[in-house]
């Protein structure tokens, strides 16, 4: 038992390192860890497959589908009525935080942030304020709001899934409501005051690129005697170029982007290349039929359709080189710049491996549909997509779906039934269809959640949790239950700063369970402690997907999260632990 426990602990440590260093795609890392546990017979295939039938995991995907339908139905004009252009920045920030914290209490918070980023950027651009003063508050307030209910964050549902899997009573509506409202209120008060002083006033990445557009794009044209006339792009040798790519062709008033390999070149075409400008000039010097115009138009921003997009943690692009992803054909756009961790990447874009959180600045065609690839790329540039207000009657399907969901949240009906009924309501009103639901299913997320449950089971079954708890009890011997709870909370908080919150709560669950049993205490305060600690990642961008999503659009650096997040973490921790001590012990 001891050897299998130490092996399990070692596997978990290796998994944490792999996730922290981004050595493998998260879903593959989890799957690899669970595969080793299966081979070593620490868990059985039947125990692994139990996760696929876990009701709370299925509820997560029902909620994601429900959120997708509500977003489509609610309309964009609604948000611009709330966010008047005449608002003062402080008032705008408070309204923003109140709205998204309320939404994330009943809807999955990741889509809420994805939906709101373009509106925040549009408002800040119109009013000439830096988006960096508002996007971290957007992320943090969704995290805080998500703690108000069991459905607000997948962390709570994963935890309840583990609790039910082990046969204990699940956390209820009141276990999240009172403490969730308290930390959300105190956290938003802090953010409304501290954001002006602790967040940077930083220019957005797109502005930097636009100001130096000639460094990214070079305009050429085909003169009347060009050798490339009547040749396809591939025949002209412009398809597989080193360090550069053909981003767009302008033919009279027609714009061709992205450019396919079989596009036939014609005299007078204007060809726009992106990449290493020196390599582009070298191409022209080879006298192959390209020339530089006397009067170029590259500096005219209005000529191009520049679009920003963030790579989410669920993207199938992660780990691939751009050149191997068939990006231009698949996503109808060409990448001209990549920003990562607040800095612009140098070198050949085609050779760049995609990481979660990367911000792409793309040249896209005007007819591209952002909904075609929202799972792989989250578009953060609003492109004149403000629709008129739909009116309350047309929002009726969403209101009905939310009403049904609310009955599940407060426990009047089963949450699974409520989420299912909400989906069915939107389907009957033709707001949702099977295609939209299919797009909402994220296989990577499913693997991570199912594997997380298996890890928690392995830690308990192998005796690893018992080993760790014995060490914890020895450290706190004679100090009382509250000190043990504080250490449990801190351990979970550190872990969730390094890896995903779902993984953190799965790893810490068996430790919380064993700790409560050995101390002969009610288990609820231990479960509440790890639930709130696992969602309390305010110091890093990597532990919570919403933090990673706003990093590129806000042009944030790693230290920005720590500067504003460390005081918030202290406040959050004190409030949570004091409440648990007062309410449960």
TrEMBL record:
<dbReference type="InterPro" id="IPR031312">
    <property type="entry name" value="Na/sul_symport_CS"/>
</dbReference>
<feature type="transmembrane region" description="Helical">
    <location>
        <begin position="57"/>
        <end position="84"/>
    </location>
</feature>
<dbReference type="GO" id="GO:0005886">
    <property type="term" value="C:plasma membrane"/>
</dbReference>
<keyword id="KW-0812">Transmembrane</keyword>
<feature type="transmembrane region" description="Helical">
    <location>
        <begin position="28"/>
        <end position="45"/>
    </location>
</feature>
<dbReference type="InterPro" id="IPR006037">
    <property type="entry name" value="RCK_C"/>
</dbReference>
<keyword id="KW-0677">Repeat</keyword>
<dbReference type="Pfam" id="PF03600">
    <property type="entry name" value="CitMHS"/>
</dbReference>
<feature type="transmembrane region" description="Helical">
    <location>
        <begin position="140"/>
        <end position="164"/>
    </location>
</feature>
<dbReference type="InterPro" id="IPR036721">
    <property type="entry name" value="RCK_C_sf"/>
</dbReference>
<protein>
    <submittedName>
        <fullName>Sodium:sulfate symporter</fullName>
    </submittedName>
</protein>
<dbReference type="InterPro" id="IPR051679">
    <property type="entry name" value="DASS-Related_Transporters"/>
</dbReference>
<feature type="transmembrane region" description="Helical">
    <location>
        <begin position="399"/>
        <end position="429"/>
    </location>
</feature>
<feature type="domain" description="RCK C-terminal">
    <location>
        <begin position="204"/>
        <end position="289"/>
    </location>
</feature>
<keyword id="KW-0472">Membrane</keyword>
<feature type="transmembrane region" description="Helical">
    <location>
        <begin position="6"/>
        <end position="23"/>
    </location>
</feature>
<dbReference type="GO" id="GO:0008324">
    <property type="term" value="F:monoatomic cation transmembrane transporter activity"/>
</dbReference>
<feature type="transmembrane region" description="Helical">
    <location>
        <begin position="96"/>
        <end position="120"/>
    </location>
</feature>
<feature type="transmembrane region" description="Helical">
    <location>
        <begin position="479"/>
        <end position="511"/>
    </location>
</feature>
<feature type="transmembrane region" description="Helical">
    <location>
        <begin position="176"/>
        <end position="199"/>
    </location>
</feature>
<feature type="transmembrane region" description="Helical">
    <location>
        <begin position="523"/>
        <end position="542"/>
    </location>
</feature>
<dbReference type="Pfam" id="PF02080">
    <property type="entry name" value="TrkA_C"/>
</dbReference>
<dbReference type="InterPro" id="IPR004680">
    <property type="entry name" value="Cit_transptr-like_dom"/>
</dbReference>
<keyword id="KW-0813">Transport</keyword>
<dbReference type="GO" id="GO:0006813">
    <property type="term" value="P:potassium ion transport"/>
</dbReference>
<feature type="transmembrane region" description="Helical">
    <location>
        <begin position="562"/>
        <end position="584"/>
    </location>
</feature>
<feature type="transmembrane region" description="Helical">
    <location>
        <begin position="441"/>
        <end position="459"/>
    </location>
</feature>
<keyword id="KW-1133">Transmembrane helix</keyword>
């Amino acid at each position: 038992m001891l050897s299998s426990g130490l092996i399990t602990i070692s596997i978990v440590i290796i998994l944490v390192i792999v996730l922290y260093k981004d050595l493998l795609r998260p879903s593959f890392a989890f799957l690899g860890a669970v595969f080793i546990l299966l081979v070593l017979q620490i868990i059985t295939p039947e125990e692994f497959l139990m996760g696929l039938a876990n009701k709370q995991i299925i509820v997560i995907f029902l909620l994601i589908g429900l959120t997708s339908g509500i977003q489509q139905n609610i309309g964009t004009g609604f948000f611009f009525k709330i966010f008047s252009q005449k608002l003062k920045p402080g008032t705008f920030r408070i309204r923003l935080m109140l709205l998204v914290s309320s939404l994330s209490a009943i809807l999955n918070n990741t889509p809420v942030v994805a939906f709101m980023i373009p509106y925040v950027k549009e408002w800040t651009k119109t009013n000439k304020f830096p988006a960096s003063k508002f996007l971290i508050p957007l992320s943090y307030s969704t995290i805080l709001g998500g703690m108000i209910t069991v459905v607000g964050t997948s962390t709570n549902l994963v935890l309840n899934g583990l609790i039910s899997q082990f046969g204990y009573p699940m956390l209820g509506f009141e276990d999240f409501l009172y403490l969730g409202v308290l930390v959300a209120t105190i956290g938003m008060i802090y953010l409304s005051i501290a954001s002006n002083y602790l967040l940077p006033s930083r220019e957005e990445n797109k502005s930097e690129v636009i100001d130096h557009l000639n460094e990214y794009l070079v305009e050429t044209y085909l003169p009347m005697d060009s050798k490339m006339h009547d040749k396809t792009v591939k025949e002209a040798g412009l398809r597989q170029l080193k360090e550069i790519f053909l981003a767009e062709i302008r033919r009279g008033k027609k714009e061709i982007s992205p450019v396919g390999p079989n596009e036939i070149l014609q005299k007078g075409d204007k060809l726009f290349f992106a990449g290493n400008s020196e390599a582009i000039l070298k191409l022209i010097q080879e006298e192959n039929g390209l020339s530089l115009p006397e009067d170029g138009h590259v500096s005219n921003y209005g000529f191009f359709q520049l679009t920003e997009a963030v790579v989410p943690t669920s993207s199938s692009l992660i780990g691939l080189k751009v050149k191997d992803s068939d990006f231009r054909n698949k996503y109808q756009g060409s990448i001209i710049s990549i920003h990562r961790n607040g800095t612009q990447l140098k070198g050949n874009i085609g050779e760049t491996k995609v990481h979660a959180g990367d911000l792409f600045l793309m040249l896209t065609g005007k007819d591209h549909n952002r909904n075609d690839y929202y799972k792989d790329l989250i578009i953060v540039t609003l492109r004149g997509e403000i629709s008129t207000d739909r009116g309350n009657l047309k929002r009726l399907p969403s209101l009905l779906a939310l009403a049904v969901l609310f009955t599940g949240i407060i426990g009047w009906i089963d949450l699974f039934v409520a989420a299912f009924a909400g989906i069915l309501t939107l389907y009957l009103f033709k707001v949702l269809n099977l295609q939209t639901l299919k797009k909402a299913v994220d296989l990577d997320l499913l693997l991570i959640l199912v594997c997380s449950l298996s890890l928690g089971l392995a830690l308990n079954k192998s005796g690893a949790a018992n080993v760790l708890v014995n060490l914890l009890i020895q450290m706190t011997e004679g100090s009382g239950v509250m000190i043990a709870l504080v250490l449990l909370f801190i351990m979970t908080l550190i872990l969730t700063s390094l890896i995903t919150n779902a993984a953190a709560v799965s790893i810490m669950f068996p430790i919380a369970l064993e700790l409560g049993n050995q101390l002969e205490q009610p288990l609820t305060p231990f479960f509440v402690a790890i639930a709130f600690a696992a969602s309390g990642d305010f110091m890093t961008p990597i532990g919570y997907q919403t933090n990673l999503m706003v990093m590129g659009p806000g042009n944030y650096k790693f230290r920005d999260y720590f500067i504003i997040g460390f005081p918030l973490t202290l406040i959050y921790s004190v409030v949570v632990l004091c409440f648990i001590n007062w309410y449960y012990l």
